[in-house]
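Sequence in, structure out. Go.
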Amino acid sequence: MREIDLTVQPGQCVAILGATGAGKSMLMSLIPRFFDPTSGRLLLDGIDARQLNLDDLRRNIGLVFQESFLFSNSARENISLGTDEASEEQIQDAANIAKAHEFIAQLPESYETKVGERGYGLSGGQRQRIALARAILRQPRILILDDALSAVDASTEEEIRAELKNVMSDMTTLIITNRVPTIELCDDVVFIEKGKVKAQGSHTELMKNVDSYKALFLETQSSGLEK
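Output:
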């Protein structure tokens, strides 16, 4: 990535779009400092991220990826990971927002059912919803969703979006997605092309003024790809 000049305001919801390999996930990986920029700076509240305590930084970030990893623990433990003092009510509230409570309640031992690598087999969408509940429970200042609902069916995703809208006002949210309803949930769209910020603005503005954005978007919708 190069020549990135991007400002996201606190409390803003921003959609990140771009072709596969454009650098979307790499850009998001800078925020929790999975790696640092080789030039330039990443500022959080005006402070260079490299000056912040790494544990404190990551405690304030919620991450949900397309491939959601679950540990070989109970559903409850997977949701409450990193928030050991969370109450049962808080855990279930987070699961409700992520639309995970209903299917968890139907598991053989409900929230005590062992899931993950060697536990009860869950679908991709169910795994994503548990991972989302985990991120929400942490009440992060920054929430990053990297194609995090790609395996969730359309009707459930719509319900999750409605719930997220109520909690995102307290956090800065960055969403990698190509889905129109999710884009419309956001205040702004950032279009990444070949490792650069090609354009920034509303979806309507970019569709009207940026040919490569429009071409990518229409191709993605027609092919059914969600990259």
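Check: Residues 45 and 59 are 16 Å apart (CA to CA). The mean pLDDT is 90.
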